[in-house]
């Protein structure tokens, strides 16, 4: 591996997850490609298409010129529309076409990463994420691929892989979403705290704090008087924070203590699909 040492953990985690996806789908029959996943509106084929599209864009490939159908109910904003183009353009591809493109994309992207000479602090531009350090972008890619690996495992009845290196990176990436969700989308009151107490293969406690100006932050210090405490297991946390578990299904799997109305707003705000 010739990448900068600070990038290597993300590259290795990405490699493990995307190769697992390749193994999962290598022997699928036609009907299995059409199985629905927990990602709203997406089948197994669609999830794999999204993974391929994300890596093609990371390689600098031009985006497909494609007009989306008007009846895709799960396309509700510009972000979902952006993601959907790479998915919809492959909706009629056969299983062999999908696996061949995935394998070729993995080969190309792996070679690209092996030849990477930049370091983690070098700033890049992305149409969705804006300007961000390369190290952060590779963490997002590793987390994204891991989340979708779990989508495929659940859809195909395979055991989820919840404690891999990519899972730990996903934890950190998902936690970065919480301040915006709690403080801005759910409008938690100023000078309040919301606690997420997560158990299981990846165990942690995090507190989202809202300051006097309504800005959110997250840290690992406990709060003496949180307005809401969520207690849940790691897999449920990932499914809730990525919009896989929504509404009543989420409420049934999450123990809530504190102000129920605020807790409901937070759970609803977390429902934006990853």
Question: Topology of this protein?
Answer:
Blueprint: H1 8-25, H2 30-33, H3 44-58, H4 78-88, H5 95-114, E1 123-126, E2 130-133, H6 134-155, H7 165-175, H8 178-185, E3 192-199, E4 204-210, E5 216-219, E6 228-233, H9 234-241, H10 247-253, E7 255-258, H11 260-269
Parallel strand pairs: 3-6
Antiparallel strand pairs: 1-2, 3-4, 4-5, 6-7
Domain MDMPI C-terminal: 169-265
Domain Mycothiol-dependent maleylpyruvate isomerase metal-binding: 15-153
Protein name: Maleylpyruvate isomerase family mycothiol-dependent enzyme
Provide a brief overview of the structure.
With 274 residues, the protein is of the alpha+beta class. 49% of the residues lie in helices and 14% in strands.
Can you characterise this structure?
One of its GO terms (molecular function) is isomerase activity. This is Maleylpyruvate isomerase family mycothiol-dependent enzyme. Residues 15-153 form the Mycothiol-dependent maleylpyruvate isomerase metal-binding domain. Keywords: Isomerase. Residues 169-265 form the MDMPI C-terminal domain. With 274 residues, this protein is of the alpha+beta class. The chain has two domains: 8-157, Up-down Bundle (Four Helix Bundle (Hemerythrin (Met), subunit A)), CATH 1.20.120; 173-269, Nonspecific Lipid-transfer Protein, Chain A. The chain has eleven helices and seven strands. The chain has helices at residues 8-25, 30-33, 44-58, 78-88, 95-114, 134-155, 165-175, 178-185, 234-241, 247-253, 260-269, and strands at 123-126, 130-133, 192-199, 204-210, 216-219, 228-233, 255-258. The strands form two sheets. The protein has a five-stranded mixed β-sheet. A two-stranded antiparallel ribbon has the order 1-2. A hairpin with a 5-residue loop joins strand 4 and strand 5. Helix 1 (8-25) runs antiparallel to helix 5 (95-114) and helix 3 (44-58) packs parallel to helix 5 (95-114). The longest helix has 22 residues, at 134-155. The chain is globular. The model has no long low-confidence stretch (mean pLDDT 95).
């Amino acid at each position: 591996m010739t990448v900068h040492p600070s990038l290597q953990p993300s590259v290795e985690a990405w490699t493990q997850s995307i190769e697992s996806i390749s193994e999962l789908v290598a022997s699928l029959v036609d009907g299995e490609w059409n199985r629905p996943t927990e990602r709203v509106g997406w089948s197994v084929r669609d999830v794999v298409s999204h993974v391929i599209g994300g890596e093609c864009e990371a390689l600098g490939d031009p985006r497909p010129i494609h007009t989306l159908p008007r009846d895709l109910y799960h396309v509700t904003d510009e972000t979902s529309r952006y993601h959907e183009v790479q998915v919809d353009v492959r909706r009629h591809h056969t299983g062999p076409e999908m696996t061949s493109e995935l394998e070729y994309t993995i080969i190309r992207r792996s070679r690209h990463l092996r030849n990477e000479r930049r370091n983690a602090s070098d700033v890049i531009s992305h149409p969705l994420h804006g300007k961000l350090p390369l190290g952060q972008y590779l963490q997002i890619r590793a987390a994204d691929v891991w989340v979708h690996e779990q989508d495929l495992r659940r859809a195909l009845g395979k055991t989820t892989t919840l404690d891999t290196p990519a899972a730990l990176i996903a934890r950190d990436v998902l936690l970065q979403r919480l301040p915006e969700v709690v403080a801005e989308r759910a409008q938690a009151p100023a000078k309040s705290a919301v606690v997420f107490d997560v158990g299981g293969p990846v165990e942690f406690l995090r507190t989202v704090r809202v300051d006097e100006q309504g800005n959110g932050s997250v840290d690992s210090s406990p709060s003496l008087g949180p307005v809401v405490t969520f207690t849940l297991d790691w897999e449920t946390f990932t499914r809730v924070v990525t919009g896989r578990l929504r509404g009543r299904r989420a409420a049934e799997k999450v123990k809530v203590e504190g102000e129920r109305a605020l807790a409901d707003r937070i759970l609803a705000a977390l429902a934006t699909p990853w």
